Automatic annotation (TrEMBL):
Record keywords, A-Z: Cytochrome c-type biogenesis, Disulfide bond, Redox-active center, Signal
A Pfam family per the record: DUF4369
Full protein name: AhpC/TSA family protein
Annotated signal peptide: 1-25
SUPFAM superfamilies membership: Thioredoxin-like
Length: 386
């Protein structure tokens, strides 16, 4: 961020120095908050999201409210999303922590409505929120209407284990999100200097059908500063990983422990046809699809079909993983690092949602992805010549 006060003239250098002493330096931040109606002594907590454990917050700093104000100072190595919580108040304030003077006008009744200003990326975040507010409201309205009109149909399909109907409903539901996804692309293309662009571009990998050509173009247009941030580096890593698991490429080898604690590799598990199945015991859609995969395996295993299940269960959930394998009668090879979304195999294969499948031929080459139900069965039969 540019300093509000720059050197003016050599003749005024002393005056300029005196003024600049009261300003935040280039390599530090000052968060100045105003809180009306909150008594003295209440704690304000600056925190950030734990990178390893989803939903866990890590405290960064704490201060007390004094005369309706608070101040937090520090140094940021790069922009990142942080949150402010105030003792006895519900919710939190999200903002971009970056070096510069950040001003926060706290809405004590609804923290999420608080106003954050003063630095470039926070102004950009405000702009983005304003531009997407109406889109989000419309999506919520359409999503509720879809759920109400299709609830009975979905329930019946789940009870009947009719994955064709379930998958079709899920596709229709996902399309409701298209307007906000389009906004993510357009904003990122138009704002290559904004940290918000790096954040939302990274999130595009989690959409049903990412446009990798557009994402690559957006990444190429980002400033060098943004490319060197954590989300910038993550975009690059995902783009590189995607190329390694494209259809036609040799499936990257991996190894991990099976439920008995033995290390098993993909290479030693290959059949005439191999399915790599990313799933987890906590994943509802995965568990719903399992009966179809069991039927497929039972029909074609003797003809050369192998399956390697890669679980994204969490640390401490080994028993849940093992019980799900037994309950769903999954008699093929299973491995897991028990590292949730930080699983190195999932990262290598660019997994952003589950269930996810890769179908390999006898040489270990990827020939198809994310097929389910009858489509998966047809591909397996084709490859086996059955």
């Amino acid at each position: 961020m540019k300093l509000k006060m720059k050197k003016i003239l050599l003749l005024l250098s002393v005056t300029a120095l005196m003024v600049s002493c009261n300003k935040t330096g280039d390599n530090e931040y000052t968060i100045t908050g105003t809180v009306t109606g909150v008594e003295n002594g209440k704690t304000v907590i600056l925190q950030k999201q734990d990178e390893e454990i989803m939903g866990k917050m890590i405290p960064v700093d704490t201060v007390k409210v004094e005369n309706g104000k608070f101040e937090i100072k520090g140094t940021a190595t790069e922009p990142s999303i942080h949150f402010l919580k105030i003792e006895s108040k519900q919710g939190q304030i999200d903002f971009v922590l970056e070096n510069g003077d950040i001003k926060i006008a706290v809405d004590k009744d609804t923290l999420g409505k608080s106003k954050v200003t003063g630095t470039y990326n926070n102004e950009e975040l405000n702009k983005f929120k304003t531009e997407t507010q109406a889109i989000q409201k419309d999506i919520q309205k359409k999503a509720m209407a879809f759920e109400q009109s299709n609830m009975e149909k979905m329930t019946m399909a789940q009870q009947a284990k009719d994955t064709a109907v379930i998958n079709q409903l899920m596709k229709e539901y996902a399309k409701i999100q298209d307007p906000i996804i389009e906004k993510y692309y357009s904003y990122s293309e138009q704002n290559p200097k904004s940290f918000v662009s790096a954040l939302i571009t990274l999130s595009l990998f989690n959409t049903p059908k990412p446009d990798f050509v557009k994402i690559q173009k957006i990444y190429d247009g980002l400033t060098s500063e943004l490319k060197n941030t954590k989300p910038g580096k993550a975009i690059k890593e995902k783009l590189d990983n995607r190329l390694a698991v494209e259809i036609g490429k040799k499936a990257p080898d991996f190894s991990a422990k099976n439920p008995e604690g033995k290390t098993v590799s993909l290479k030693e598990s290959l059949g005439k046809v191999t399915i790599i199945d990313f799933w987890a015991s906590w994943c509802g859609p995965c568990r719903q699809e399992n009966p179809n995969v069991v039927a497929l395996y039972n029909e074609f295993h003797d003809k050369g079909l192998n399956i390697v299940g890669v679980s994204l269960d969490r640390e401490g959930e080994a028993e849940s993983w093992k019980k799900a394998i037994e309950a769903d009668k999954l008699t093929w090879t299973h491995v897991s690092n028990l590292k949730f979304w930080q699983d190195p195999i999932a990262k290598k294969y660019n997994i952003t949602s589950i269930p996810a499948t890769f179908i390999l031929d006898a040489s270990g080459k990827i020939v198809a992805k994310d097929l389910r139900g009858e489509e998966l069965k047809a591909k397996v039969k084709e490859l086996l010549g059955a």
